[in-house]
Amino acid sequence: MQKYPPNQTLARMKSWCDRQERCHKHVVDKLAGWGYFGRPAQEITSELISANYVNEERFARAFCSGRHRIKRWGRRLIIQHLKQLRISDPCIKLGLKEIDPIEYDKNLDNWIERKMKQYKSLKEFDRNGKVAEFVIRKGYESDIVWANIKAR
Question: pTM of the entire structure?
Answer without folding.
Answer: 0.89
